[in-house]
Amino acid sequence: MLDIEATLCFIRDKAREYGEALSNREFLKEFRKSKKALLIIEAEQQGIKSAQGRESYAYAHEDYQMLLEGLKDAIQLEAMLRMQIKAAELRIEVWRSQNARARAEMNMT
Questions:
Q1: Which of 66, 86, 89 is nearest to 78 (CA)?
Q2: pTM of whole model > 0.85?
Q3: DSSP states of 24-85 as a string?
Q4: pLDDT exceeds 80 at position 109
Q5: Cα 50–55–57 angle (5° rounding)?
Q6: Do the Cβ atoms of 18 and 74 come closer than 8 Å?
């Protein structure tokens, strides 16, 4: 019984981390658009005339590349936490199945 309680506590504790990871990913995903716009404005101020040139400047900019690395890390953390929670949920399902089978076997005797 203690093992299942530990598993439930694990899910509870990881839920907050997972929520933070999810919100960080969403924030970075949306901020990426703002950063691109800011870099396009910066490119225009530097005299880059064409829209394609300004967009290329924004995508190639070091700040944008760092933002993408941060987004990648946020996605990785979110996926890891999601899989940890899923594994804990599966442990609970296995525990439930084992207990149901044990009860059924006790009723048969």
A1: 86
A2: no
A3: HHHHHHHHHHHHHHHHHHHHHHTT--SHHHHHHHHHHSHHHHHHHHHHHHHHHHHHHHHHHH
A4: no
A5: 95
A6: no
pLDDT digits over 61-105, tens only? 999 999 999 999 999 999 999 999 999 999 999 999 988 888 888
The residue type found at 46 is Q
- Token pair 């999810």 in the structure block, residue: 22
Contact (Cβ atoms closer than 8 angstroms) between residue 11 and residue 68: no
Q: How far is residue 107's CA from residue 109's CA, in Å, rounded to a whole number?
A: 6
Of 29, 41, 107, 38, the residue nearest 72 (C-alpha)? 29
For residue 1, pLDDT beyond 70: no
If pLDDT is split at 50, 70 and 90, which confidence band does 2 have? low
Q: Which amino acid is at 5?
A: E
**3-class DSSP assignment, residue 89:** helix
> Other C-beta atoms within 10 Å of 65: how many?
11
